[in-house]
Amino acid sequence: MGSRRVKVRSQSGKILVGDCIAELKKLPTASVDLVFADPPYNLQLAGDLMRPNNTKVDGVDDQWDKFDDFAAYDSFCRAWLTEVRRVLKPDGAIWVIGSYHNIFRLGAAIQDLGFWIQNDVIWRKVNPMPNFRGKRFTNAHETMIWAGRDRKSRVTFNYESLKASNDDLQMRSDWLFPICSGPERLKDDGGRKAHPTQKPEALLHRILIASTKPGDTVLDPFFGTGTTGAVAKRLGRKFIGIERDLDYATAADERIAKVQPLETEAIETLPSKRSEPRIPFGQILELGIIKPGRKLFGPRREVRAEVRADGTLFYDGQQASIHRLGAIVQGKAACNGWTYWHFEAEGKLKPIDDLRSEAKRQLGLGSRISI
Amino acid sequence: MGSRRVKVRSQSGKILVGDCIAELKKLPTASVDLVFADPPYNLQLAGDLMRPNNTKVDGVDDQWDKFDDFAAYDSFCRAWLTEVRRVLKPDGAIWVIGSYHNIFRLGAAIQDLGFWIQNDVIWRKVNPMPNFRGKRFTNAHETMIWAGRDRKSRVTFNYESLKASNDDLQMRSDWLFPICSGPERLKDDGGRKAHPTQKPEALLHRILIASTKPGDTVLDPFFGTGTTGAVAKRLGRKFIGIERDLDYATAADERIAKVQPLETEAIETLPSKRSEPRIPFGQILELGIIKPGRKLFGPRREVRAEVRADGTLFYDGQQASIHRLGAIVQGKAACNGWTYWHFEAEGKLKPIDDLRSEAKRQLGLGSRISI
DNA sequence: GCCGTTGCTGAATCTGTGA
DNA sequence: ATCACAGATTCAGCAACGG
């Protein structure tokens, strides 16, 4: 019952040829950082479906009613999703992609199994297939669900990189990409498309940049012709692909072998501010960057507080941290004292946050921090 | 246990004040052409969410959105969907709207109960609320499901009207509309929003134009402040609204009374706007038009920066967006990275702005895009 | 009246760390 | 497990106001 063949072409990843659920069961628990899954959409493929007990579901029978079809599909999805959840690390996450035929069943299963949805994301297709019969709207999008393993999972999200790459605006939940065509589309020997639903590499590029770190392991249980593996290799992520069809797996293997990984430096993502070393206000004082007795002001000089030697601020009979006192004088529940309080230099007010860069310099904490 | 009050203001429709399921049970079988349902989303919000300026987001904390668990939400939805299906005519259809919190459960229930999905349609919001903590993608869309009562239902679809209103291109499944704000947004006596989730009339306009005929009866089991009724009256459709909250129902009644129905001949389509999405730098990268590791130069080669895989630029220990880094190296407050940074081709420097035309070609933005 | 500035708000599952 | 608290975080549209 083992996989018929295991291919290992490079250290970047491996392709397991075999049944999705059977292969998943062999993978160790809590070993994977991210899963990308592009499961079968069409219920006509019910003959390919497996029950949770790993027996094969009989092919579509006209006497089955719709509920039976949906139930079989649901069982199959809950089975592989359960295994996927097992192999994910506690802070791991999953992406699934689908259309209206299957995405609602996938989404409900994801919620029922305890995953915690972060976003649903819409892939808007530039060049979708038109609706030939004029009976519906042009089906111009697919839906992706991004979910953490648990409600508590602290999933990877490279917010800063996405924002910087989007002209300094937050990345939205609707993404515009062309479908996979042209030279990127894999062809078989007869010049026909090698796989019916090959996904564009641009889509996986954004997904992996958004939700993985270099060196992470990405698992794709429906590997097909290996788009996930190709992009993972290029971006310095490890991959595990599971594919039942040997022809697809072979095509994927050859495709990925041709991929040239990017240089280490080219795949660096922007660090979040939180990942930088913390400089408490007291340290600014200890380093002598600011002196006790110095006056600090609100943004429009509406208050004038005094720095105390213990690293607190004093104003109007109240003594507290820069954050607490900022909250108190504004009558708010919370406050970032670094941006609220200002010091005077050459007649102008500057936020005390500016002093932290000087502290970092003195502490030898340059701006180049690589993990 | 009847409705507390039935309001009839005109021949165009009526508002039933009472419990959704109880009122549905009183309606005759096979009497309605279209249902539009905007049910509670079951948002499951935990604590307060603060904006960066430490003010509180006015979230949906109403009792009507609270359910014990998914099972309670599911049984509620299956109950009203069952009644809705009963009152629909054989060729009738339903639209439901939701977010990732509830739409997968709604979609699965719709399929299980025997409805037949025609499309899922994405409402892309021009002006969504940002993600204040920088932990997810901006939640910039909601999902609608359009389904016929049965697989066999021959549902109304005004294909020609939609195509004509879309510059003679088929209407796509992704629609761009602003959220409901400004004068359209109903206010209570205190000047606060009368309803937390009022939908824009433009959305209902397109739905009713797409999937009803003049004189059809439209039922909205979660009427709220009556957007469905207002648009139905304007477009010469009859409406039945069910609303449990008397304040909402009263506001809806007064709102609809002010609506002037259009002349019979005018009940056709409105012209659509075109939208030309921005092309951010990251997308140039994702599309493979420029590769990570590529060198970019200032206009006179005074700096040489490197493209990173995450869509940022790197120079002299600094990594930032094309705009931010351009500003930094010039010592300016701001910079248009598209015109500052250049790539080398055939020994000559060209601004990276030139690459956007290729991206636009790939993204089909030379042609017309559905709104 | 026009223009720039300031402030408010919208269906939101929105932190991380150390004690 | 809970609790305290440091401190990081926003886009587009509209309204009100002042010059």
TrEMBL record, chains A, B:
Q: Does the keyword Transferase apply?
A: yes
Domain RAMA per the UniProt entry, residue ranges: 267-362
Domain DNA methylase N-4/N-6: from-to ranges: 32-252
Q: Does the keyword Secreted apply?
A: no
Q: Which PROSITE patterns match?
A: N6_MTASE
GO biological process: one example: methylation
The residue ranges crossing the membrane are none
Q: What is the lineage of its organism?
A: Bacteria, Pseudomonadati, Pseudomonadota, Alphaproteobacteria, Hyphomicrobiales
Name the Gene3D superfamilies on file: Vaccinia Virus protein VP39
Protein name according to UniProt: Methyltransferase
Q: What is its EC number?
A: 2.1.1.-
Report the sequence similarity comment from the record: Belongs to the N(4)/N(6)-methyltransferase family.
Q: Which reaction does it catalyse?
A: a 2'-deoxyadenosine in DNA + S-adenosyl-L-methionine = an N(6)-methyl-2'-deoxyadenosine in DNA + S-adenosyl-L-homocysteine + H(+)
Q: Name one GO molecular function term.
A: site-specific DNA-methyltransferase (adenine-specific) activity
Q: Read off the Pfam families from this record.
A: N6_N4_Mtase (PF01555), RAMA (PF18755)
UniProt GO cellular component terms: cytoplasm
InterPro entries tied to this protein: DNA_methylase_N4/N6 (IPR002941), DNA_methylase_N6_adenine_CS (IPR002052), RAMA (IPR040843), RM_Methyltransferase (IPR001091), SAM-dependent_MTases_sf (IPR029063)
